[in-house]
Q: What sequence folds into this?
């Protein structure tokens, strides 16, 4: 066999190998459709957002009309989130150039969120709030206390009954609701909250540890008035237990612990416009937890959340998709 014949044979074998290799690679599916929703299993959903959120407390005296508000030095934040398949990460920070942040030299606000899904029905969320610098307000009196601190960590485990309803279309846009649907979503909510009430003169130096666990049935509805527009609303009302412990670090008063009922109310609304993998919208959410802290006072624990966002869905690299498939197969985790 001559040199030319060897060359032709090698080219033929290589060509057949390349074709076989290409045929053996499964086609990457970037969209799936049902009658009610469109999913994007192999797209990376990224978005940028502006958000205003905080964790405020109102302490009320049970024996009188006295009360005072603990409001953090509020901040406007910008950030980003990334979703791939069942996992969403988000992070935000407070830049000094935004007007609301001009007086934030002695205050801090940190918020981190995480959300994931298990199978067709389970959803898990996780949040961290850390704040430093509060205004204590009563009627027309307002005093800034830079050493007051608050730390809250917790989340919720939810079960989405209706498979045709897409919660992802509301919060992360890695799915799209194409036909109106609603769902009953029972949730278990749990939070740990630590508050340090310390003044610069040392007159007050106390610590409050608080634990909440609440069962909160909820209902959400996604209304699709047109192909690219989504209007969503939801509400939940829950009941559970709170355990609080007050500790006076100046040792002027005895430590006090109390277990009491806690109630939960949560309102959510959003508008999303979505076309050709580009999307934008507005979210609003308001969470209220009410409970006793000691025998003479109770607390309204409020977390308002407002967000404006814009984003895009990118095709994930094939290597990333194959690696994710291998991991999913090993842990039996559905896309």
A:
């Amino acid at each position: 066999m001559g040199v030319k014949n060897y060359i032709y044979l090698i080219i033929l074998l290589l060509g057949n190998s390349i074709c076989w290799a290409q045929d053996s690679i499964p086609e990457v599916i970037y969209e799936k459709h049902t009658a009610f929703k469109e999913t994007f299993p192999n797209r990376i959903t990224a978005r940028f957002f502006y958000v205003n959120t905080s964790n405020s407390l109102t302490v009320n005296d049970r024996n009188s009309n006295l009360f005072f508000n603990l409001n953090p030095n509020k901040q406007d934040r910008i950030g980003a989130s990334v979703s791939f398949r069942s996992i969403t990460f988000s992070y935000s920070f407070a830049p000094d150039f935004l007007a609301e942040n001009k007086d934030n030299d002695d205050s801090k606000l940190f918020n981190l969120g995480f959300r994931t899904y298990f199978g067709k029905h389970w959803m898990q969320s996780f949040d961290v709030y850390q704040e430093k610098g509060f205004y204590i307000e009563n009627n027309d009196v307002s005093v800034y206390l830079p050493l007051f601190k608050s730390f809250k960590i917790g989340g919720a485990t939810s079960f989405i009954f209706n498979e045709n309803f897409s919660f992802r279309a509301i919060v992360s846009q890695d799915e799209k609701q194409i036909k109106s649907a609603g769902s009953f979503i029972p949730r278990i909510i749990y939070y740990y909250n630590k508050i340090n009430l310390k003044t610069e003169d040392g007159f007050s130096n106390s610590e409050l540890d608080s634990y909440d666990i609440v069962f909160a049935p909820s209902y959400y509805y996604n209304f699709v008035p047109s192909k690219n527009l989504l209007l969503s609303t939801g509400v939940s009302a829950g009941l559970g237990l709170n355990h609080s412990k007050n500790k006076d670090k100046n040792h002027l008063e005895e430590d006090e612990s109390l277990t009491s009922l806690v109630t939960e109310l949560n309102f959510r609304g959003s508008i999303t416009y979505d076309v050709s993998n580009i999307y934008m919208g507005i979210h609003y959410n308001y969470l209220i937890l009410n409970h006793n802290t000691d025998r003479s006072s109770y607390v309204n624990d409020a977390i308002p959340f407002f967000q404006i966002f814009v984003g895009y869905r990118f095709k994930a690299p094939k290597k990333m998709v194959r690696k994710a498939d291998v991991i999913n197969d090993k842990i039996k985790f559905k896309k």
Residues 6-25 have pLDDT under 50 and may be disordered.
